[in-house]
Amino acid sequence: MDSLSFSGIFSSHHVSPSTVLDFDQSNHRRDGVFLGKKFSFARKQDRQGLTINHVASPLPVIVPSLEKEIVPDLNHVAWTSVRQERWEGELVVQGEIPLWLKGTYLRNGPGLWHIEDYNFRHLFDGYATLVKLHFENGRLIAGHRQIQSEAYKAARKNKKICFREFSEVPKYENFMAYVGDLAKLFSGSSLTDNANTGVVKLGDGRVVCLTETQKGSLVIDPNSLETLGRFEYGDSLGGLIHSAHPIVTETEFLTLLPDLVNPGYLVVRMEPGTNERKVIGRVNCRGGPAPGWVHSFPVTKHYVIVPEMPLRYCAQNLLRAEPTPLYKFEWHPESKAFLHVMCKASGKVVASVEVPLFVTFHFINAYEEEDEDGRVTAIIADCCEHNANTRILDQLRLQNLRSFNGEDVLPDARVGRFTIPLDGSPYGKLESALEPDEHGRGMDMCSINPANLGKKYRYAYACGAQRPCHFPNTLTKLDFLMKKAKNWHDEGAVPSEPFFVARPGATEEDDGVVISLISEKNGSGYALLLDGATFEEIARAKLPYGLPYGLHGCWVPKK
User: Fold this and answer.
1) pLDDT at residue number 453
2) Is pLDDT at 23 greater than 70 in this prediction?
3) Residue 183, pLDDT above cutoff 90
4) Most exposed among 217, 235, 405, 551, judged by the fewest C-beta atoms under 10 Å?
5) Burial annotation 513-551 (CB, 10 A radius, 16+ → b, else e)
6) What share of the chain is helix, strand, coil (3-state, %, to 5)?
7) Structure confidence at residue 29 (pLDDT)
8) Buried-state track 188-210, b at ≥16 Cβ within 10 A, e below 16
9) Which residues pair with 243 in a beta bridge?
10) Which residues contact 491 (CB under 8 A, 6 or more apart)?
């Protein structure tokens, strides 16, 4: 069964070269260098209830790059290409790291936004930089390394973009070269394998970096950060794209495969120790010329929730040599928005409801509501919702991120809470889970205690906003019971996703630590630990230089 095939997609669309081709990419050039020196540490704090150890670590040891140093751009380090391809060393810790924290936090994300003197357009175009923070015995060893995708290696070798990225395409010397690239697009061979979005630990222990393309599933060594090779799916489902955020537990791997030919989604499962995905069921789209973008999706104990967003994949935009404001997508409000609920066991769609228009990259969690007799009456699904405003995609252009002038230009966002009735009602609800001003009307990059995946939960950790700003700039603890938020902020800094790690044996949902990597405006950066309960700082460790903003991470516990 094919989930996505490009044969026949474009037969009804005439594409005029004059409308899709722009061979001049010379207007994206790079400027000088900015490396800050200033850094200040937080004061030492006593942490009640945590086993701790003060650490006086040796100065970091830099592993020299095997190639010439990559010169960064003149802007905030969060939006600057990583300084070198590889580094590892022990960090000096200010504060106290819990002794129970034993394992490696991995964070993936775009980190190199130029090739030679050509500067990329969009945050999501950057070649993947994998970062590690290894905690053991109160000490912290950090490192980063470029993921060796075929796209990255080809770009370095040929000194130009060679595969289709999020907004970037290879530079065509002439029209025939463009036609040849289109032929490769139909087979998927021209699509990138730049695995710059997330990283997951499978139930069998393998660690895989992921992006929207299926070929961009790459196995890495969590200790050395070496790229070990492509994760080859051992089935005949076919397809070119999938959700960038599968649901991964110790017992299964669930993901969605959009079907652009017959608009819909395959819901598939893969068991640990295998590379074979098996179909649970299929959801047919109820609106639009194509499936809605499914960057992520939530699950409950018994159900998979399949979102059908009016921000839909667009075959014509895939063909273009220059990006549109919505890149590979189109906004179709007339097609409406839907949520579909599929039973994990039977593959049957048990509910399909129309909901208010929404835009989200990231779902947070979902759970089942029961009546007093234990019958499931509704599904609650939470997401980082951008008030049905697609402008957030274009706001992530690097030109916008690098040109903050103090104006408050970050589009509003909230925790959107969907209620999906299971009584046959045709409509669901969408409302704010708490007042958006609690988190500065900024909201994205959430994590939860993984023990509460698919269950009713109270807390989530996210990036919010302290305005004026142009990008989420706080770490935020959300309390859905009290409908309150606690916010951490460092003036001028850009924090990455707050990742929660539970204390072994913990019985309280927020008993653990929150890990984040912080990029500072002066060119520096540091690793940060917050107490999951109080949301106060436990420790920080300065990096030898600031790292680019990253996206999503995972925890690999020490065996």
Assistant:
1) 98
2) no
3) no
4) 405
5) bbbbbbbbbbbbbbbbbbbbbebebbbbbbbbbbbbbbb
6) 10, 35, 50
7) 40
8) bebbbbbbbbbbbbbeeebbbbb
9) none
10) none
